[in-house]
Amino acid sequence: MEYILDVALREKNTEYEIHKRVHLMRPLSKVEIVPMPYVTENTRVSIILPLRYEDRARMPTFLKFYEKTVLTAGDNSVLMTVFVYDPGDPTTGTADPYVDIKAQIAAMEKMYKDGARIAWISIKARNPTEFSILDVVSKKFTPEALFLRVTAMVELNPEFLNRCRMNSIFRWQVFFPMGFFEFIPNIVYGPTSPIPEILDINKNYGHYDRHSFEHAAFYNGDYIESRKLIAADVPVITDAKKVPEEGTINIKFDLYDMFLESRLHVFRAVEPALKSRFRAIVCTPLADEAAYKRCLTRRGAALGSRAQLAQLVLEHRSLRAAEPFEGEE
Q1: pLDDT of residue 319
Q2: Cα–Cα–Cα angle for 62, 244, 232, nearest 5°?
Q3: Phi, psi (degrees; rounded to nearest 5) at 314
Q4: pLDDT over threshold 70, residue 250
């Protein structure tokens, strides 16, 4: 606990008064200095982006943020995009649901002298688990690779990348930031106001989502070692062509829970540099009861502020009251 104490000191003989301000701190528990390994901001970040069909419309905007943050600024990062297909979807030709995105990536490769540093792989499975996706990706990198798992809704920026570098330590610590998530745009900005290109951190525009664990930074080697802890319950995927679909595996924990069971430190903190646009949250009953309830709580909090939702209820009641009853002219 911290205190600010203003003190007035008066001399007995001269009545001269001196004013002092003192800062005091009383620790609530025993203060302990934890030694931390040395880290730098020069580590290469491998951005892992699983892209599902419903998020493909956001991908061109994400690539623009990636181009500005990484390619133009010369940041030491690469992007691995995982295209998730349904079993019956074509993966080539004009019928490919991601054909426009692949064309944009190809154009970026030609635009830059050293290429766009974007790789992509395909997975065919209906709603594969996060472990299935990471198992496939993990085999394509060395254990020393620093992973940053994101969604297409993120507004990528250098500050967030550097924060992930500093807060992720090989064989020591993983980082699960609590980002700022946008509310439903129609509620926040109204039906006529334009949506700003950059999300502003404001209590009327969004909130810090403490129930979100979808963004994480960790080293591939730490994932490989921690993955062994749950291999008996969730088998490790060794073939990208044999990824199981959702519902075929009973998942009772997520990536965050897995790291909590490991020997690693799990660093969880509010991260203002992580800003994410609104995306509808889908809660699956196939998850365990605790995860399902957590998802429902998160989905309710992501709609809007209490004042905004209360205003919508009042407007809806006013419209209902103004409607004529059945049979009235």
Answers
A1: 81
A2: 110
A3: -65, -40
A4: no
